[in-house]
């Protein structure tokens, strides 16, 4: 994307410059990972107390950091690996691992944790059922949807994520992670579900993730509030004049930009979502997570 933008811009200035850039300049892909929640007034006050003055650019974040860089340089690569950066031939599998195992698990906790009354991710992790269920999602579903040749110990990575999510000093709000679900669900839940389906693996936790999102959206709109999502108006139109909550959910599942035509074309997908949705509806999200953790 960066290469296309720069070469196109250069071509408008000087086609010869654009040709030289295309031939002699590389644009290594990268992936970064560090949990940096939105700042709160209390955290700004904490920084002020520690350093003696107000810093409007200050942040509170975790110790962990990861930088994966495509090994694609024209004149020798910089020795950033000495500081912990990883050079790899292809960044995409690592990006996919992060999107599914970290971000997908975050979304699972955000929607279902919010339904359970948890404000922060670390509070979800203090609930043993949530902790067990999200570990199952990571190791038994998301990890099994990844590139088989990924040179990473996914069980070790999952434990690292569990530890990171459990950090009580990182005030990562479920509501913040729940934002913009329409832009996140395809990569974090739908794609891995379909990969598992093609590989003959059940995606019960992924179905619970999507069911949690459905309840989260319906509950928010039913209370007269807006969903923090660019498709909020589409969601409102989808659930309008529906007789039951499942009819509302089914209408949301027919939003093409999120789910394509899966609601009509993939009976197993629809059945798994409906089962998870109905269990939350009838028994509550806490009982649903307990059931998932006991089977995991």
In short:
With 296 residues, the protein is mainly alpha-helical. It is 62% helix and 4% strand.
Describe the protein.
This protein has 296 residues and is mainly alpha-helical. It has two domains: 1-27, no CATH class; 93-295, N-(1-d-carboxylethyl)-l-norvaline Dehydrogenase, domain 2, CATH 1.10.1040.10. The protein has helices at 2-13, 15-24, 41-51, 92-115, 121-125, 128-142, 154-165, 174-178, 181-198, 204-222, 232-239, 245-252, 256-259, 262-265, 267-283, 285-295, and strands spanning 30-33, 66-70, 86-88. Strands 1-2-3 form a three-stranded mixed β-sheet, covered by helices on one side. The mean pLDDT is 95. It is an enzyme of class 1 (oxidoreductase). Keywords: NAD, Oxidoreductase. This is D-mannonate oxidoreductase.
State the main characteristics.
globular; fructuronate reductase activity; 16 helices; 62% helix; 3-stranded mixed β-sheet; 296 residues; mainly alpha; N-(1-d-carboxylethyl)-l-norvaline Dehydrogenase, domain 2
CATH class of the largest domain: Mainly Alpha
Kindly, what is the distance between the CA atoms of the first and last residues, rounded to a whole number of angstroms? 40 Å
Number of strands: 3
Pick out the low-confidence regions: none
Question: Which architecture of the largest domain does the CATH hierarchy give at level 2?
Answer: Orthogonal Bundle
**Global mean pLDDT:** 95
Strand count, sense and barrel status of the largest sheet are: 3 strands, mixed
Task: Report the radius of gyration as a whole number of Å.
Answer: 22 Å
State the helix count.
16
Strand content: under 5%
| Strand order, largest beta sheet | 1-2-3
Structural class: mainly alpha
Give the overall silhouette: globular
CATH topology of the largest domain: N-(1-d-carboxylethyl)-l-norvaline Dehydrogenase, domain 2
Tell me the number of structural domains. Answer: 2
CATH superfamily (homologous) name of the largest domain: N-(1-d-carboxylethyl)-l-norvaline Dehydrogenase, domain 2
The percent range for helix content is 55-70%
Instruction: Identify the quaternary structure here.
Output: single chain
Spell out the helices and strands N to C: HHEHEEHHHHHHHHHHHHH
């Amino acid at each position: 994307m960066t290469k296309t933008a720069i070469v196109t811009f250069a071509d408008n200035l000087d086609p010869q410059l654009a040709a030289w850039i295309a031939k002699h300049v590389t644009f290594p892909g990268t992936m970064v990972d560090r949990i940096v929640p939105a700042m709160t007034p209390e955290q700004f006050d904490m920084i002020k107390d520690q350093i003696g003055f107000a810093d409007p650019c200050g942040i509170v974040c975790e110790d962990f950091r990861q930088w994966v860089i495509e090994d694609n340089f024209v004149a020798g690569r910089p020795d950033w690996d000495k500081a912990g950066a990883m050079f790899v031939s292809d960044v995409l599998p690592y990006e996919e691992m992060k999107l599914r195992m970290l971000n997908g698990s975050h979304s699972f906790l955000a929607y279902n944790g919010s339904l359970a009354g948890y404000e922060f991710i670390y509070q979800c992790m203090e609930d043993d059922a949530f902790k067990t269920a999200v570990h199952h999602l990571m190791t038994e579903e998301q990890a099994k949807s990844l590139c088989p040749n990924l040179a990473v110990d996914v069980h070790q990575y999952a434990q690292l994520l569990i530890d990171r999510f459990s950090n009580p000093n990182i005030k990562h709000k479920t509501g913040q992670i729940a934002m913009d679900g329409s832009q996140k669900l395809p990569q974090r839940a739908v794609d891995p579900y379909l990969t598992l389906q093609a590989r003959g693996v059940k995606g019960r936790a992924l179905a619970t993730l999507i069911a949690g999102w459905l309840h989260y959206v319906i509950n928010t709109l039913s209370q007269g509030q807006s969903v923090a999502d660019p498709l909020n108006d589409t969601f409102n139109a989808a659930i309008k004049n529906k007789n039951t909550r499942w009819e509302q959910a089914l209408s949301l599942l027919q939003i093409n930009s999120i789910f394509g035509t899966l609601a009509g074309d993939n009976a197993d997908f629809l059945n798994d979502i409906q089962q998870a949705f109905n269990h939350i509806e009838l028994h509550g999200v806490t009982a649903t997570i307990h059931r998932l953790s006991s089977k995991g």
